[in-house]
Amino acid sequence: MTARNIISRRDFIAAVTVLSAAGMAACAATSQQSSRLWTADRGSSKLPPRGEFVVRNAYIVTMDPKLGDIPNGDVHVRDGALVAVGANLNAPNAEVIDGRNRIACPGFVDTHFHLWGSFARGVVADGEFDYFPVMSKLGPVMTPEDAYASARLGITEAIYSGLTTIHDWSHNIIDGRYADADLRALRDCGIRARFSYGYSRNLQQKPKETADFNDIARVKGEWFGAANDGLLTLGFASRGAGDTPPEVYRKEWEFARSLGLPITQHAGPPPAPRRRRSDAADDPLMAALRAWRLERAREDAVPAYVVAHDATLEAISEARPTSLPALRRVKGMGPSRIDRYGDEIVAIVNSVGRD
Ligand SMILES: [Zn+2]
């Protein structure tokens, strides 16, 4: 009896985190020259053979209430499907992967990922150099090759982190080649994914225009035939009620539904009103925090933003936390910053921060 008959790959272990290296090797092995990027056949490519392997002596977290955890367990996989999970499995022909001191568990699912922007993961929030202004400048000048490279970087990082399913919310589709770039990267790396066709940075400025219906239909026809090993599904990334009027988003949703595409959109509370810089400048607490930051940065020989960003200082001066628990709730005050500076900041608030 094959593994498929006993337990499907997805039932228990989409992939195990110890296998990330194997996944990345597959990713590298299928690398394409950029000249073939847009011409190679889209619908018929197959992933490389998955082979047979056994992970030995891992700490297995099955997530199955009946099976529980299995310390020092084995996972036997053949052709992408589980054969067996347990202790001391007999698998004479399988390649052995040493799982000692590793956790083997079902792959994680990331429900929101902008693969095209993976290259900019290091962009930190710092005034004008914040994520959104930077990405709206970089997005329009990217080439499809850039998008492909960025997507591969993001997928590789995902696999390395134990993610085996991602939702690529693709919202820098300047023309159809950019959708092809993401899809090719997803297919080349062999990760399971929902690709949600979105819009371009440009279209975001044009709320009265609909998404490119013709190209969405083309992508569905070209990429989502029977031949993608079932790993990829198509969705629609909608600007939705936040960014478009009802006559536009309704038309888009009707179109997406006519193709059977699931619809997702960004949602969240409206941004908190920012204090005007002049307000912050007049605030004695803000002035004290800035002076303290300058001193700490000099003492520690680090740039001021390493101690705290302006936005963090502003959030502190707004929240006026008079205790460590209150300071912990301030955006930007993570555990290491609390450890290093928490007591000093609370002391400053207590001395000058009372309204
Ligand atoms: Zn997003």
Structure in words:
It is a single chain. The chain is an alpha/beta fold and 355 residues long. Helices cover 42% and strands 17% of the residues. It contains 16 helices and ten strands. Strands 1, 2, 3, 4 and 5 form a five-stranded mixed sheet that branches. Strands 6-7-8-9-10 form a five-stranded parallel sheet, with helices on one face. Strand 7, helix 6 (176-189) and strand 8 form a beta-alpha-beta unit. Helix 3 packs antiparallel against helix 5 and helix 12 crosses helix 14. The longest helix has 18 residues, at 335-352. The radius of gyration is 25 Å and the shape is flat. The protein starts with a helix and ends with a helix. It binds zinc ion. Residues 112, 114, 169, 266 line the site of zinc ion.
Q: How many separate domains make up the residues?
A: 3
Query: How many β-strand runs?
Result: 10
Text of the CATH class of the largest domain: Alpha Beta
The share of residues in extended strands comes to 15-25%
Tell me what the CATH architecture of the largest domain is: Alpha-Beta Barrel
Distance between the termini: 73 Å
Fourth CATH level, the homologous superfamily of the largest domain? Metal-dependent hydrolases
Shape: flat
Bound small molecules, deduplicated: zinc ion
Rg, Cα atoms, Å = 25 Å
In DSSP terms (H or I, runs of 4 or more residues), the helix count works out at 16
Mean pLDDT: 83
At the third CATH level, what is the topology name of the largest domain? Answer: TIM Barrel
Helix percent band: 40-55%
Alpha-beta classification: alpha/beta
Order of helices and strands: HHHEEEEEEHHEHEHHEHHEHHHHHH
Q: Could you describe the largest sheet, including whether it forms a barrel?
A: 5 strands, mixed
The unreliable regions are: 1-35
